[in-house]
Amino acid sequence: MAGRLRPSPRCGGSPFTFPTMDLNEARGFLREQHHGVLATRGADGRIQQSPVLVNVDGEGRAIISSRETAYKVRNLHRDPWAQACVFTDRFFGRWLYIEGRAEVVSLPEAMDPLIDYYKRFPDENPDWDDYRARMERERRVLIRIELERAGPDRQG
After folding, report:
1. What is the DSSP letter of 10?
2. Are the CB atoms for 152 and 18 separated by under 8 Å?
């Protein structure tokens, strides 16, 4: 039952877990709202946060473009846990969090997924040769997050 507080086996069965929402509903929100903050774990266990643009790929994973040298990418190579808070352009209003296991796809394998990522935003398509050169120059990667949890599904 989405939205009800219930014990979570991954959290030691505590009844004080966050309410969760349907993952397909979360994917729908991510297809429309792209501004977010990605949280990863640093080497010392502390949370590191970065502003990001989020979308959803054809397999339902959250996708984010980054650089190979970014702290969030280094963190994800070491610990694949990721959580993002995504909100509307107005900032105040509807929002959600997503959480799951992340995979970092590096170049050259990342090129076609990076093109797909760009095409999922409502901008005009760039000169693709220039885009490919920029992705290589910036050492871009694609972060894919397999959604395991999302929520909350109510405002508090």
Report:
1. G
2. yes
Looking at the domain assignment, is residue 114 inside a domain?
yes
Do the domain assignments include residue 40? yes
* Tens of pLDDT, residues 30-73: 999 999 999 999 999 999 999 999 999 999 999 999 999 999 99
Taking the model in full, what pTM does it have? 0.85
Task: Write the pLDDT tens digit of every residue in 129-146.
Answer: 999 999 999 999 999 999
- CATH number of domain containing 29: 2.30.110.10
Half-sphere exposure at residue 120, Cβ-oriented, CA atoms within 13 angstroms: 24
For 22-77, give the secondary structure using H, E and C.
CHHHHHHHHHHCCEEEEEEECCCCCEEEEEEECEECCCCCEEEEEECCCHHHHHHH
- State the Cα–Cα distance between residues 145 and 117, nearest whole angstrom: 13
Domain assignment of residue 4, yes or no: no
149, 99 contact by CB (below 8 A): yes
> How far is it, in rounded angstroms, from Cα 20 to Cα 6?
10
User: How many structural domains does the chain have?
Assistant: 1
Asked whether the CA dihedral 94, 97, 103, 107 is positive or negative, the reply is positive
